[in-house]
Amino acid sequence: MSRAGWVSLRAIHPALLSPPDWIASVKRLLLALCLLPALAAAQTAAPAVQPTAADNAFQSIYQTEWTWRTQQSSGGDEDGDPNAAARNRSLPDVSPQAQANKLAYLEGVLKQLDGVNVRALSAGEQLNYAIYRPQIEHAAAALRFRDYEMPFNSDSSFWSNLDFMARAELRDAAAYHAYAARLRDVPRYFDQQIANMRAGLARGFSVPRAVLTGRDDSIAMTAHLKDPEAASLWAPYTRMPSTIPAEEQAALRAEGRAAIADAVIPAFSKLLTFFRQDYMPKARTTLAAEALPNGKAWYREQIRAYTTLDLSPDDIHAIGLQEVASIHAEMDAIIDQVGFKGRSPQTRFADFLSFLRSDPQFYAKTPQELLNDAAWISKRVDGEVGKIIGTLPRGRFTIVPVPASIAPFWTAGRGGAGTYWLNTYDLPSRPLYNLPALTLHESSPGHSLQQSLVLEQGELPGFRKEYISAYGEGWGLYSEWLGKEMGIYQTPYEDFGRLTYAMWRACRLVIDTGVHHKGWTRAQALAYLRDNTALSEHEVTTEVDRYISWPGQALSYKLGELTIRRLRSEAETALGSKFDERAFHDVILSQGSVPLPVLEAQVHTWMVAQQAK
């Protein structure tokens, strides 16, 4: 990149884009920049060449590890594939010994990677190395820090994630027998998790007590069941394939009913007792990640893992403040546009937020109405998305409500390759003016489209299809911005909703670092998000508690989006009339999830190739 390029980048965000920070990240991920020529070759190389000996050795490392990695998966979360684990008869072993074995294995992989002569790899395998090694480094770091001793946060938990296991398509009796065996394994699995949580409590490594109120409700929903068929885990037995004879179906249902009654419900009851009597009273009273054992190092690792960048908390905080100020000016312009006066010039912004949060015109009356509006937005996007993206996936997604057991504390929605989960809980907290931005982010052209494209890139190694938060969430937030270009925001209020979502992500940079590095209180964080966005009070509370209990993750959205938008601006400036938006987006989407420095190198290489045409 030219020195002039650095100057233009620094004019946008000096802390994010100055040469030392970017080079530091690239040194870590691209081996002190020696891979940049290889990345160029990997992107522009024509015919495939015979693998080198170094290629074969490296491929053996990641193929063996990937097989091992997939064997560890339970399919029990919103991002996992429940069908991949449908034949498993047990849930994962999460005991300390199993964790130690995983760490030893991954440290062995890192030692093997140290022995790879990266310069002897072909261009494509050098690119793979730049993406693969950080995955192993972060997985090993999580085990060294013993993250498994805090196996939940205010957003997600091991007990609620079991519900996603029930999404599997069980096609024969053997799959149902395996599913029932996993249900019977819940007590062992929960006992191991409880033991890990006790160990975390003993050393002060826990979710903060301040965000635990009400989190026991999701456990109690199952613990207090009298009828096994009312359990969410009963779902596979309500859709048994007709290829299984009726008599055998009855026997399988009896097996499942007994497993839920004899194993699942008692396990949840035991977990509930532990959670209420031990965990909640003994959880730490501090909020900051840096207050944890070895907390400063742990928080910096979360930042690196979620953002793929080597930025300090202070740098990120400054970027957030600058973004908040910029977006605030755009929001004021829309308030001018609609002619809203408020009680006074000093209170106008707060008055407008109050109006949005309270006027019935902005809220659905039934869950189905909210789902219908989201579906209508998605179909309108279908008519526009091909104009801005060249390669579209064959896969389609459905829209379903967030499961009741997790809805009270989940975010407004979440998207994956096949599903866009929309939270229909507490409709007065789900404003319709935010729905276009949410739908663009979670479905198309956001997560559902991007992750479907990844799954359809069959030639990529499996690890290239793993989710990288800064890339995926950056693309999701950028997709909200693209909605303006596609004409999806039809009213000033919906455009204000777009800006509310942009402001929400900018506030995350300020709040996450404020709480975990600068010593902010929960009340400070709540006030900051409430005063700067049109999110409902329920969303403000659930979101702040999410940032408190899930350090670093919320940083990935805005930092990823800023990178993509900056790269687009650079490409538009450098290419002029040669800039092709569809081709640019294909470059962003064609390689699967990649660290941001790798994405930067890919786009710059594409720009050079386009200039040469």
Structure, described:
This protein has 613 residues and is an all-alpha fold. It has 25 helices and three strands. Helix 6 packs antiparallel against helix 7 (123-144), helix 11 (217-223) packs antiparallel against helix 12 (246-282) and helix 19 runs antiparallel to helix 20 (492-516).
Distance between the termini: 19 Å
Mean pLDDT: 90
> Beta-strand level of the residues, as a percent range?
under 5%
The side-by-side strand order for the widest beta sheet comes to 1-3-2
Shape assignment: globular
**How would you sum up the major sheet?**
3 strands, mixed
- Which structural class do you get from the secondary structure elements? mainly alpha
> In sequence order, what are the helices and strands, one letter per element?
HHHHHHHHHHHHHHHHEEEHHHHHHHHH
Percentage of residues in helical conformation: 55-70%
Rg is: 24 Å
How many E-type strands?
3
Spans of at least 5 consecutive residues with low confidence = 1-29
In DSSP terms, counting alpha (H) and pi (I) runs of 4 or more, how many helices? 25
